[in-house]
UniProtKB/TrEMBL annotation:
Pfam families: TPR_20 (PF14561). It comes from the Bacteria. It comes from Candidatus Planktophila lacus. This is Thioredoxin.
Length: 286
């Protein structure tokens, strides 16, 4: 990472407003200065990834992100190094890192700078970012690849699925989501488990026949959509349930809407078929 010619210029972060009180107690990570950034951290990034977080006493949100990163660094037991940059006290460093707002996180891997994010995120998403940094560093021969961590509830769910006990697997995933509501793997696992439970032992051909004969029967249409999802026919399944939304009110409409959302969770959110169906559902509801 080469430092720009305007290294000595200050960064204008006046939009943050008036200074606030300094955070209580010591902050995690190593305080970054112009000297240790160039003399220590660049060379250190050849051995393990470095994550720098730019923060300000005027931004409580940025202080929260520093705390989250400190917690994750502690959990990862030295596999990466956390440095913190007070943009008010170290404008030269902030300028060198091209900081435009706080919080702003950047990784340094083998002396190369990799911007990460420049807004506050919850711990689960920051965890995913750090895991990607570790994986990228490992690909470049820096540090080791992140070890996959399996939650105990997920282990319980997988064992239950291997035994064909869908109810126990569902309960395990729900227990994990109660503890970690935004865990994407748990959300996906629960949706897959519920789908397998609903389609277990179902005669797909007969369900499709019944769905054609009774187009407005919610239970049959829900079953048919499940069969279509299992068979890989995403668009027909989404269209089948979207057609029902304007036909019903109250609890019945909510039932169809909730099932659609469950089915969306089974597919990559970036899939254009999901994006299209989500937009159609929003239009139908509002």
């Amino acid at each position: 990472m080469s430092l720009p010619p305007n290294f000595g210029r200050a960064v204008d972060l006046s939009s943050l407003g008036k200074p606030k009180a300094e955070p209580a107690g010591p902050m995690p990570g190593i305080e970054i200065t112009p000297e240790n950034l160039t003399n220590e951290f660049l060379s250190l990034s050849k051995d393990k990834p470095v994550v720098l977080i730019c923060w300000s006493p005027r931004s409580p949100e940025s202080q929260e992100v520093v705390a989250i990163l400190g917690k994750l660094a502690l959990a990862d037991q030295g596999s990466w190094v956390l440095g913190r940059v007070d943009v008010d006290a170290q404008p030269q460093v902030a300028q060198a890192l091209q900081t435009r707002a706080v919080p702003f996180a950047v990784a340094i891997i083998n002396e190369q700078m990799v911007p990460l994010f420049e807004q506050p995120y919850p711990e689960e998403q920051i965890r995913m970012v750090i895991d990607k940094v570790l994986a990228l560093a490992s690909e470049q021969g820096v540090g080791g690849a992140p070890t996959e961590k399996i939650e105990p509830e997920e282990e319980e769910a997988i064992a239950a699925l291997d035994a064909g006990d869908y109810a126990k697997a569902e309960a395990a995933y729900k227990k994990l989501l109660a503890r970690k509501p935004n865990d994407n793997f748990a959300i996906l696992g629960l949706a897959q488990t519920q789908l397998m439970a609903r389609t277990d032992g179902i005669d797909g051909a007969n369900v499709m026949k019944e769905a054609s004969a009774h187009p407005d029967n919610i239970d049959i249409q829900l079953q048919c959509a499940d069969i279509e999802i299992v068979s890989g026919y995403l668009e027909p399944a989404f269209a089948r349930l979207l057609r029902l939304i304007p036909l019903f009110d109250g609890a019945e409409k909510k039932l169809v809407k909730d099932r659609l959302i469950e089915l969306f969770a089974l597919v990559d959110p970036a899939d254009p078929r999901v994006i299209k169906a989500r937009a159609a559902l929003a239009n139908a509801l509002f």
